[in-house]
Design brief:
Radius of gyration: 25 Å
CATH topology of the largest domain: Trna Endonuclease, Chain: A, domain 1
Shape: elongated
Structural class: alpha/beta
Oligomer: single chain
Strand content: 5-15%
Strand order of the largest sheet: 1-6-5-4-3-2
CATH class of the largest domain: Alpha Beta
Length: about 375
């Protein structure tokens, strides 16, 4: 006979579980903070001595080799990585070593290298910092930080990605993808009619942040000329063969429902190319794939699909459905005219495939085996 568990015990279990999860998060944050402190301090020490030629040439290589001898099996202190620590310090020192801001990483004296530089024993909060933008700094790993050092020049852009890495738990590969796709500049730039069709300001704001104006489908390689774009079904097949990567392209909180999603209205069948659900938006998201340039008639069909989804599929607690037209090219003025008098929230985005990307943009996303580990 199955034992009945009192609701009180269930609440107790949930309370303890929550405490365990929070403790693990604090422990991980503390360890990462300690590591960043150590690297920052070593970077300062190396910078102040190597830049002045006090140590002479080849000093960093010699130091790295000697460390390996003193601490057999030591990892992360190659000559290359020590130079990265120096770069890490020199990049952030002007922003962290100031009198106007509580130190996130307290600077070292040249004769002391100790790992307790960060505010330890508790995660940083907005109350800890005069500038709350830095609150996620110590939650992001050194590999993420270095990727930002070499791929960005703007402090605001770095802080944008640091916050997203910390709050959305991005892997390094995910960060690389969003850097290459220029999420910082493109997030919220999707041509849309959200302001005119969504009355709830919070839902409207989230919708604006959930889509980009261009998606890099660098895992799709379809041979065709610029004047002979592949059929939508060919593109759809390629996306379905790489659905996990496509979801990564879309961003967080997207769940795939199906392709060629069947709707029946007035005893007729209609099929939506791709249907997703976004947990953050609490909304169905219909995506129609189009070859070539945007055409105004695409929105009329999408408006119909969204009306049918809202009436036949959407649950009572969910927000109105959103539609995205994904095409090869679009003209802003034409899209704006087409949006007039449309009643449903929609946007028009473009995509690029492998053949259109410069070499450095290709293969941004990991292979299938790596994705299995990530997801």
């Amino acid at each position: 006979m199955e034992q009945q568990i009192s609701p009180n015990y269930l609440n107790i279990v949930q309370t303890i579980k929550s405490a365990i999860v929070k403790s693990r998060y604090r422990a991980a944050t503390f360890i990462n903070s300690e590591m960043l402190s150590l690297y920052y301090g070593i970077g300062k020490y190396i910078s102040e001595n190597s830049r002045s030629n006090f140590w002479g040439t080849g000093a960093i290589d010699t130091i790295s080799e000697r460390l390996q001898q003193e601490l057999p099996g030591l990892r992360g202190f190659s000559a290359v990585n020590i130079k990265r620590m120096r770069q890490f310090y020199e990049t952030w020192a002007p922003h962290l070593d100031t009198d106007n801001q509580i130190d996130i990483i307290r600077p070292l004296a040249t004769d002391e290298i100790q790992p307790n530089l960060l505010m330890a024993n508790r995660p940083l909060s907005t109350d800890d910092l005069q500038n709350a933008k830095f609150q996620y700094f110590s939650s992001v790993g050194f590999t993420h930080h270095y990727e930002l050092l070499i791929k960005t020049d703007n402090i605001e852009e770095r802080l944008f990605y640091i916050e997203r890495c910390a709050t959305e738990f991005w892997s390094v590969e995910k960060l690389k993808y969003n850097l290459k796709s220029d999420l910082y500049s493109k997030e919220g730039t999707l041509p849309n009619n959200f302001q005119a069709t969504i009355s709830d300001k919070d839902f409207q704001r989230k919708a604006m942040q959930s889509f980009k104006d261009e998606y890099l489908l660098d895992y799709i390689n379809i041979e065709s000329s610029l004047d002979d774009e592949p059929d939508e079904r060919i593109l759809e097949t390629e996306i379905m063969n790489n659905i996990r990567k496509f979801i990564m392209s879309l961003g967080k909180d997207f769940s795939f429902i199906g392709n060629q999603y069947r709707l029946i209205a007035a005893e007729q069948e209609f099929f939506i190319d791709l249907l997703f659900f976004n947990r953050q938006l609490q909304s169905l998201v219909a995506i129609e794939l189009k070859r070539g340039k945007f055409k105004p008639e695409y929105l009329g069909k999408m408006n119909f699909y969204l009306s049918a989804l809202d009436d036949l599929v959407r649950l009572p607690h969910e927000n109105p459905s959103i539609g995205i037209i994904l095409c090869k090219d679009q003209k802003q003025q034409l899209v704006e005219y087409a949006f007039r008098d449309m009643s449903k929230p929609m946007g028009v985005a473009t995509y690029k495939t492998t053949k259109e990307l410069p070499p450095e943009y290709k293969n941004i996303l990991p292979d299938t085996e790596s994705l299995k580990e990530l997801l």
